[in-house]
Design brief:
Length: about 500
């Protein structure tokens, strides 16, 4: 009997022959370090919805085609790429739907590795898809964990204590791991879904939505950092001028310096894992009322607490915070490289431009790109992260440069908001990003195996230095970007 059939038999898998095609599991434990109750609804065809009731409530869903996420502020956010893949694989492992012969997932034939059975899995056949390993115990044929393959094997979800479910036996104890952070949930109820909740989510901000003052100037007070020449804007809390915030599209969440948060006595609530291109770290959330930049007021900002002292020294400017995804998702932003201009508009603001689509991973924008080593040489087609918190033109993983037949013999250490590491220096004659061509690009080559640059979903990142002589329009609410030569500032 094939190993996958043996796993089905060990879990008493019924699949579409079960009494119901949708299952609901309820449990309690910790999420983001906070006491939480979970409700997980799943269909045998792969649709799934997870609700977390805690001081940081959130709902995540996949409707069979698209993923979506509504976080603690009620903001409807896209769930794309590796984020969506991991959510789908976790739901399939917990409910057992991954064992259905008609599953939408791609599974390799199981192989035996010592006392373990390993099934490689992906959410689709595209080469950029995040790869996973479902690890089962060889003696019981029951799953032990789901591992994310990104640089090296890293446990993402561990399961144990199986008991009868709906499609098959289900684990009753779940452990989520991100770096050194761990959350544990005990499943207290499993049964057919008695109340079917929709898999399509909707924005739920209400009064918590960002407010753009129509009478205020659209321009924010802005400057460049003395080193790196990165875009900084002035921000205030309830009228109190805090200082300079970095405009950073590479930040999945806005952040505040720990010392400033303590001085303002901002409440701490929960924690998260902050992913950078070269690694990651755990960080607490701080609630901040009335955060204002230019004409925009964020009435209930949820900021990640970071120690910004080192990056302040590196940039030559005292940073008090970073503006990331939650600002860009609630306003249209116009960035002009030179002379530096930062303008903020309502999300429905209409600007004539040549727009290109944007996808997101970990709330960071990802753009279609073609990298060319020469006019008739090898090229690499894929996606690159847009990171205005990086002063360089482009950062690539070493595997991508090898694919292009290029080497980077000179190496140097670099420190920045996006992490630290050793980088090689090279050049590419041409790259095409979001419908715009850039020539003679300086490239930093990362050899690390951790962080976002180690994953398969992107080729690398492009930074603020690439946009000299350009302007960028960021319209995240409509998932689009426009890159062009600057027009006269208004």
């Amino acid at each position: 009997m094939p190993l996958l059939d043996e796993i089905r038999a060990a879990l008493h898998f019924q699949g579409r022959g079960a009494a119901a095609l949708e299952v609901v599991a309820r449990g309690a434990g910790t999420v983001a370090g906070l006491v939480a109750a979970l409700t997980w609804q799943c269909h045998i065809d792969g649709r799934t919805r997870l609700e977390v009731d805690s001081p940081l409530p959130e709902t995540t869903a996949f409707d069979g085609t698209h993923g979506a996420y509504v976080g603690p502020l009620g903001l409807l956010e896209p769930l794309d790429l590796a984020d969506l893949d991991e959510f789908r694989l976790a739901a399939a492992l917990i409910t057992g739907s991954w064992l259905d012969p008609r599953t939408m997932l791609w599974l390799d034939d199981p192989v035996t590795e010592g006392d373990r059975i390993v099934v490689r899995a992906r959410a689709g056949d595209e080469p950029w898809r995040q790869a996973f390993r479902i690890v089962c115990k060889s003696t019981t044929r029951r799953p032990l964990r789901l591992e994310v393959l990104s640089g090296r094997d890293t446990p993402a979800l561990e399961v144990d204590d199986f008991a009868p479910g709906v499609f098959c036996d289900m684990p009753r104890r779940l452990h989520w791991r991100r770096g050194w952070l761990t959350d544990t949930v005990e499943i207290t109820h499993v049964g057919p879904a008695d109340e079917i909740r929709p898999y399509a989510l909707h924005d739920a901000r209400g009064e918590r939505a960002a407010y753009v003052d129509p009478a205020a100037p659209t321009r924010a007070r802005a400057t460049r950092s003395p080193r790196g020449r990165l875009p900084l804007v002035r921000a205030a809390v309830d009228g109190l001028d805090l200082g300079w915030f970095l405009i950073d599209t590479g930040a999945g969440a806005s952040a505040i310096d720990r010392a400033i948060a303590d001085r303002l006595d901002l409440p701490s609530v929960g924690r998260t894992w902050v992913l950078t291109p070269t690694g990651g770290e755990g960080a607490a959330y701080r609630r901040c009322p009335g955060l204002t930049v230019g004409p925009v007021r964020l009435p209930d900002a949820l900021l990640v607490e970071l120690d910004l002292a080192d990056i302040s020294v590196a940039l030559g400017a005292r940073l008090v915070g970073i503006f990331g995804f939650d600002l860009f998702a609630q306003t249209m932003v116009r960035l002009v490289h030179s002379p530096l201009t930062v303008e903020l508009f309502t999300p429905c603001h209409d600007v004539p431009a040549t727009w290109s689509p944007v996808r997101f991973e970990h709330r960071v924008p990802v753009l279609d790109a073609v990298l060319s080593a020469s006019s008739d040489g090898p090229s690499a087609t894929g996606r690159v992260v847009l990171d205005t918190g990086s002063s360089g033109q482009m950062v690539l993983n070493e595997r991508v440069m090898s694919q292009l037949g290029r080497t980077a013999p000179r190496r140097r250490g670099i420190r920045g908001v996006s992490g630290t590491g050793s980088f090689g220096v090279g050049r590419l004659p041409r790259i095409d990003v979001a419908g715009t061509r850039f020539e003679r690009c300086r490239v930093l080559v990362a050899d690390g195996v951790e962080g976002a640059l180690a994953g398969p979903t992107t080729l690398g990142s492009i930074g603020w230095g690439l946009f000299a002589g350009r302007e960028i329009l960021l319209d995240w609410s409509r998932r689009r970007i426009a890159i062009s030569s600057p027009v006269s500032t208004r």
